[in-house]
Structures are given as structure tokens and as C-alpha cells.
Amino acid sequence: MATEAPEHKKHRRAGGRERRDPKAKINGPAYISRNIPTYDVMGEENLLKIEATAERILAEVGLDIRDDDECLAMFKKAGAKVDGMRVTFEPGHVREILKTAPREFTQHARNPQRSVQIGGKNVVFAPSYGSPFVMDLDRGRRYGTLEDFQNFIKMAYACPWLHHSGGTVCEPTDVPVNKRHLDMVYAHMRYSDKAYMGSITSEERAEDSIEMSRILFGKDFVDQNCVILGNVNVNSPLLWDGTMTKSARAYARANQAAVIVPFILGGAMGPVTNAGAIAQAHAETMVGCAITQLERPGAPVIYGNFLSSMSLRSGSPTFGTPEPAIGSMVIGQLARRLNLPLRCAGSFTTSKLPDGQAMQESVMSMLSAIHCGANFILHSAGFLDGLLSMSYEKFMMDADFCGALHSYLGGVVVDDNTLAMDAFKEVTPGGHYLGSAHTMANYTTAFYDSSISDNTPFESWVEAGSTDSATRANTRWKTALADYEAPGMDVATDDALQDYVNRKKASMTDQWY
Amino acid sequence: MATEAPEHKKHRRAGGRERRDPKAKINGPAYISRNIPTYDVMGEENLLKIEATAERILAEVGLDIRDDDECLAMFKKAGAKVDGMRVTFEPGHVREILKTAPREFTQHARNPQRSVQIGGKNVVFAPSYGSPFVMDLDRGRRYGTLEDFQNFIKMAYACPWLHHSGGTVCEPTDVPVNKRHLDMVYAHMRYSDKAYMGSITSEERAEDSIEMSRILFGKDFVDQNCVILGNVNVNSPLLWDGTMTKSARAYARANQAAVIVPFILGGAMGPVTNAGAIAQAHAETMVGCAITQLERPGAPVIYGNFLSSMSLRSGSPTFGTPEPAIGSMVIGQLARRLNLPLRCAGSFTTSKLPDGQAMQESVMSMLSAIHCGANFILHSAGFLDGLLSMSYEKFMMDADFCGALHSYLGGVVVDDNTLAMDAFKEVTPGGHYLGSAHTMANYTTAFYDSSISDNTPFESWVEAGSTDSATRANTRWKTALADYEAPGMDVATDDALQDYVNRKKASMTDQWY
């Protein structure tokens, strides 16, 4: 398909009632360009100490790369010291390697109006990623299926406040493990026109994801432009597994963006003290980003962060807690000092229900991502139970909060209209602004209008059934799915994608673990 | 009583099982000294424009002071232009008057270890203020009573994360309106040893509150030290009611601190655009603070803020929304430029239940107060239904979040221990930190341990009853009240306070409106 002329692709379309039309109005902004500064909580002296500790970790302790000899050879060639699978670096060496990474890049969506700009002042919201379970108020918790997976893609597509389709929005556990990625990538392409993520669970699956993107966007286009992200985890502390390095290299080789993410629960996979955990995360992330730059200098890459804490009574992971929230602010500063796009936090919680705890922890972690300057915010919607469940209701509640953040990131606009001097002269002391000319001229854009929050009088709320926000969200997701209309896709592309999926599936026996 | 020797007061004690002992360990910090900077979202140029607009409002529109001729005369004497009840000021004049106000001051508590420092880097949490209704999960919404009032004081006293007893924690609607303040102030004094607020609903009630404080602390002490706050509202837009100015002056006259708070719902009591609403709030607050400084130069005063928004579909007030959250950050910058202590936001919400909406909106507004540099945070716990209800459950949930904020405001500590270089050498790549010497040495203080959040595995959570956080909070407040032990108070002081209350009550007929 990659050799087909773009014109040819336009001739027929499949499924969706709406034709993909570059001029059609989209239902929300493609992404946010922030109008408020980042919140820099740490001073220069302490930042230098953390950076120096990261460099000492890389020089004096080093980092293991397991089962990827090519990667070890790459580092050796670049001048690192390699001893077995242990790699150590002279201070400053990794930073030097990172200089080829772009500060900002575009991830193209198949709807060009939906392409997202990652880096700089830009903020992109993507759904939660990786839960084996799904949950809703009607059916409770259960294993995720391909139908659930498709539902979350449809809901993200329909939501004006999510800019990105995400990746493994839930595990489709009814599909064999070795074939899931094909159905997942196809579903992102088919049921949404927003940008998406591909598989990283093996090099071959990463390459399948990229190959399917070549069918959708054209081979040459993909070689020159980023169209897919792969979220790659460090096996903290200080261990890179070959599965991950090979996937990261596959994305970089194809000029696609790896998101490099250590997952550190302080006290388990890193020091229990924030400063040390941050230094470790910085060391691990820098090395991961360096792998992509050695594989293909200039390939887009995202500096990721997934700092969290644990219950020191039970050893359980905790999310949305204050220490990682404030620690993430420092991570943001470190990423900016490397001129790398940043991925941070999201709507984290350990709650099992979309209740008060869930939203308290979610807002704490999401605002930390917003303030720390994160450019790509995975887990923006749906995260429940320490990432074990993807919640239909919380998805809608979180997405609504993402809407509020559009207003928040707009900051306080100061100009003659907003300063309202004329209004002060019109409405004298003790007067009322409701009917004033200034209010009339500005009210439609003044405040974010939540679709979940109830702000009616108590009596109206009782008459309407005394619902809590989770119950209202339950109604909202059902409406969103009922109203869903697929974006159009031309039949030739769709056929080619399905053909690829079917051929690959036929070539393998099912694996369930 | 003010003439009694302090020694005499110690001889007997009433009620409480615990003796007031200045050396007794208190159950939480007296207040927080923040270790993270404020979040300054607006640049110099725009701040100057907002300040200039506030000055223009004061010069070109002016502000009305209704029913307080003494206050008008004070302003006239100070050089303002007074025309009827309209006061206008030359640009810069009000700022000049404010120069006598202290940048920071101590509000003394009757337990000296509980005295709070207001201003500078300090943060003080006080419960919500002013709800006519109370609510709990068992009995639903009902009018507040004196018993509810006392309960919330007891809960705030028992809570390690609330530093202050607050003021009208709920309206005790079973007590006549003209006598409520006596029971309220007595309850703060008797059931807590934390600092508290007095009445502002009339000059006489303000003076009663102060007079009772003289009984508790001694007359001379009160003249030289702040022991009580009064929360005084502007009748926005640009109108100061005499009831409020007289109360503010009563506090200042006695060297006690007025909190000066405009309550602006953008589009109703001020412009619908943030910049204008902020300029108006700034003008109103500056004038209120100036009243205290003209009454008694050097009297402590707090620059307050209660910016909020409204639903432009229904006209209902909205709380915890993004626009006031970001606007408050600017208010913080303006207050600091005047060198005044700041009161901002709190745990706002319009939700009728302690649900997801409630905590999402609460955290949004509370973090805005934290980031904007608020020194005194009223409405930290219990706020529900746009301030119409004080919720027992939300009180516990919010207070628990105040605990989390203690860790958050501690920032990221950077030293040899927290950087953990030894730990990196002990735990090699791929190892585990759980049993490491560094974890053992640091784990008890590493992470905030929430008493409400559930972070157990799903199965344990199901076994424990599948509770949501509101249900757990319901258990917590009952335990808090059951375990409550009153702080000791010497009998002579208690008798004198009760005598004052009884004499004042006997001197008036009941008024119910």
C-alpha cells in the first residue's frame, strides 16, 4: 500500500459515516499550547546536585543492559565502558549523546488537523495505558476484552479534551498475547483519527506496529515523520531489558518516537527518598534516550517519568500521593535542562472506585504533570486501582477535568477587554454585572462548562435523583458510545491493514502468556 | 479576669482530662513553613496592568462606604476624596496607607505551642466557615446546631493537620442570631486550644468576641498581641457595608487581625473576565486593609481572596473551577507585592455529596491556595454544596488531604542522605531497595500515610467491605468524636467566660433573624 498514490486512497471509504475531510471542523483543540509558565520548585544549586548524582550513578555504579548485544556494542563504540552487560559512562558523556534529540516534534495523525505537537509549550492528553481489568458501575470489575478496548478508543475519539488515542487503553485479554498488538493498532487506526501508540512488548511487535503505520501513512512519509509512539519501560533499578531496548531501537530506527519511562516506586525499585529516586530516574531515562540517538541520531524521543511511592505499612504501590507529585516538578526541570520533550504523571489513584479518593489523587497527580511542564500526559483518563483497572466512569470524569485544564492552562489573559475598565464605569458600586454589556460580550467563553459536575441548587439536585458524579459519568459514557460515529477511512487502506493483520495472525500459533 | 495573675489561673482546671501544659507534646505541627516557592504565573508587565487598573478603579470609579460616617471621616482626613458615601483615591494613595501593616504576625493560641505564624513562608489550615446546613451520610442534610458546631471544633482540635479552630464552622441555628456569637466563641475557647476567629456580624458582637479573648488571655496581652481573627466581607462590587467596616475597625482598634475578603462571582459581583475581577478584588481588598491601618496603624491584617465563577447556563455559583484557581495565583502575587499576609481559597466544591466531584474541585482550589502562597487557608475542611453545607465526612477527607500537603510543602530535600549515593552502591542494578540500609533508615518518614485512602489489593478491599472513601470517612469522624478529650482549662477562667456569656445573653431578647 505504501506505494499507492495518495489520490487513489481517497476514492473509496469504509465503515464510518463521516468522510475524512481535512477541512471538517474537529470537536476540540488538537492540543494545548500553555499560556502559564512551568512551576520550578527547585533552585539551581540542588538541581546541580541531583544531576551530579545521576552522573555519579552512571560513572560509579553503571547500568545493566540485558540480552541486547547490539545495544552494548553501540555504547562501546560511542565510548562507554562495557563490562559484560554493565555499562558505565564518563560524567557528561550521556548528555553529549542526547544533543542530537529534537526539542520538539510533530506526531502526525491520519486527520492532519489532529496532529499533535510534542515538546515546548505544548500539552497533549492521552488515555490511561496498560490495565488488565476494566470496570463500570453496572458490571463491576472484569478482564478487559477487545470490545472494551474498542470502546475506550471510541470514547477518546469522541471526547473533545483528549488529543491522542493512546496505546494499550486496556489489555484485550480475549485475544492471544502474541496477536493482540495487531488488533490494538488496527483499532486505533480504524476507530479514531487521532494519533496513537504502538506495541513495545517485543521487537517484532514494535515493527508490526510501525509497518501498519506505513500502510496508513505511506512508507516515505513515515521515514521522514513521526506517526507512532512506543512507551518503553526501564526495569528499574538501573536495568534495561533487551525486550525494551530492542523495541526502543526499532522505533528510533524507523524515525518514530520512543517514550522512555523508568517506573520507580520509592523504597522498592529505587531509594525511598525523593532526591535519590529522581537522580536514579534521570540516569535511567538519559541512557534510554541515548539508545535512540545512537540508533538513529535525530530520532524523536520523549523523556518519561513514572515516579511513585508505596505504602510502608503494606508494601503496596501508592499513586496520587504528595511526594511523587512534588518530585515530578523536579523531573520536569531536569528534562527541560536537557531540551527534551517530557512525559509525566496522569490521573493516578489506588482507589477501586471512581470516588472521592480517586479524584483527589487524580487531580493531585494530574496537576503535578500540568505544572511540571509535561508535554505528553499518558494516563490522563480512566486510571483506577493502581493501573489495574480502566474505569468507564472515571474515564469520563477525568476527561472532563482535562477540559477544565484547557481553561487553566490558558492562564489569565490581560488586555483592555479582560481588564474591563469600561464595565467598572458602566456598573457602579453595589451594582450587578449579570446584564452588563461586558458580561454579555464575554460570557460564552468566560468559564469552562463541565459536563459532569453538578452546580444546581440542592433542591434541583434532589429532584434530578440525588446523583453522585460517578453515576452521572455512567450516563455520559453510554451516551458517548451510543452517539459514536466512526471517522471515514478509504477501503483500500482498510483492506490493506486488515490483510496485514490477518496474514500476521495466520503465521503464528496462539500464545496466551 | 484580666487582672488575675497568671499563676492564679493555673490552680484549678475544668472539664478536660488533659491539663494544659506548655511542654506537652502536641499531636501535629503548629503550622507549616513552606519549603517550595510560590507559583508565580503572571509576568511583571501584566501585573503592572492589573495594579494600574485597580488604581484607576479607585481613582475614576471609587468605592462606596455605607452607614459608617466615622470610616468616611477617617478616609477624608487621610486625604481621600469623599463625596456622600463615595470615596475616591489618588493613584498610589491606598498603597501608601498600607505600609504600616505588618508583613507577618503571630496569632497566639491559649496553648502556646499552638500559636500560629501568619505571613511569610507560613501556611495555616482552618476549617470551613459559614454553612447554615450540616450533612453526614447517616442523617443527610439538616440545619446546623450548637452540638454540630461543638463537634466540628472537637474534630478540628483532634486533627493533627488543622492548625486553627476556625470561626463559624457551621451556623448553630438553634441559638438566637443575636446570641450565637457568644456560644461560638466560648466553644472555640473551651473545646480547643488552637487559635480561633470571632464574630463580625455587628460591631458589638465583634467587641464581645474580643472581650472574651481578654478574659482568656489577659487584657494587656490582647492589646499587644493578636489572639483573634475576624473575617470581614466586602459587599462586592465596590461597596463596603458599615456592619463590615465597623467590625473591621473594632478588630483593628483592639490590635486584632481582620481578614479582608471580597466575594466575587465573576459575571455577578464583578466582571466575567478574570483580569478585571482580580483588579476589582485588589482595589476592594486594599481599601479594606487601609481601613484597619487608619484605625490603628500597625494592626495586623490579612489580604483575603474569594474569587469564584458561576454557571453561565443557570447563574448558580460554581466552586473549584479552573478560572478562579489560576486567578488566585495572580492574587497571591499582588498580595506579596504589598507585603501583606494572604488568605486564599480552600477545599471548595458545589457537589452535594463527598464524591468524586467534591474532591476534584476541592483539590483544584486547595492546591491553588497552596501554590499561590496563601498564609491562612480558611475552608480547608468540610466545604460542601457551595458552602451551604458543612460535611462531617468531607471534613475528614479534606483534613487528610491537608496532611498530604504537609509533605508536599516540604518539597524535595536534597542532602547526602536523600541523594542516597551509598544506597546505589549497596543495591546494584536489578536489585531491590526494600531491605536496604538506606530504606530501613528512612522509611518511617518517607511518605505521608493517609488515614482515608485505600491502597490495599483489590481482594483485600473487597473483603474489607468494598467501601468508598466517604464511607471510611464516616467511620473516622465517629471515632474522632468518641476519642475526643478536651484540653484542660482552669476553672476561674471558665467561670468568668461563662459568666460573661450568661450576662450578655440575659441582657438581650432573642432575635431569630
Summarize the structure.
The structure is a homodimer of 513-residue chains. By secondary structure, chain A is of the alpha/beta class.
Helices and strands in order, then pairings?
2 copies of one chain form a homodimer.
Chain A: H1 6-9, E1 32-33, H2 44-61, E2 63-66, H3 69-78, E3 81-83, E4 86-88, H4 93-97, E5 104-107, E6 116-119, E7 122-125, E8 133-136, E9 140-143, H5 146-158, H6 180-191, E10 196-197, H7 203-217, H8 219-224, E11 228-234, E12 239-241, H9 242-253, E13 257-265, H10 274-295, E14 301-304, E15 306-310, E16 317-318, H11 322-337, E17 342-343, H12 356-372, E18 376-377, E19 383-384, E20 389-391, H13 392-409, H14 416-419, H15 421-426, H16 437-446, H17 458-463, H18 469-483, H19 491-506
Parallel strand pairs in A: 2-12, 7-18, 8-20, 10-11, 11-13, 13-14, 13-15, 14-17
Antiparallel strand pairs in A: 1-7, 2-4, 3-4, 5-6, 8-9, 15-16, 19-20
Helix pairs in contact in A: 2-10, 5-6, 6-7, 6-19, 7-9, 9-10, 10-11, 11-12, 12-13, 13-18
Q: What does this protein structure show overall?
A:
Chains A, B: One of its GO terms (molecular function) is methyltransferase activity. Chains A, B: Its EC number is 2.1.1.-. The structure is a homodimer of 513-residue chains. By secondary structure, chain A is of the alpha/beta class. The first copy, chain A, folds into 2 domains: 1-38 and 101-411 and 448-513, Trimethylamine methyltransferase-like (TIM Barrel, Alpha-Beta Barrel); 44-97, no CATH class. Chain A has helices spanning 6-9, 44-61, 69-78, 93-97, 146-158, 180-191, 203-217, 219-224, 242-253, 274-295, 322-337, 356-372, 392-409, 416-419, 421-426, 437-446, 458-463, 469-483, 491-506, and strands at residues 32-33, 63-66, 81-83, 86-88, 104-107, 116-119, 122-125, 133-136, 140-143, 196-197, 228-234, 239-241, 257-265, 301-304, 306-310, 317-318, 342-343, 376-377, 383-384, 389-391. In chain A, the strands form 5 sheets. In chain A, strands 10, 11, 13, 14, 15, 16 and 17 form a 7-stranded mixed beta sheet that branches. In chain A, strands 3-4-2-12 form a 4-stranded mixed beta sheet. In chain A, helix 2 crosses helix 10 and helix 12 packs parallel to helix 13. Residues 1-13 and 15-20 of chain A have low confidence and may be disordered. At the A-B interface, helix 2, helix 10, strand 16, helix 11 and helix 12 of A face helix 2, helix 10, strand 16, helix 11 and helix 12 of B.
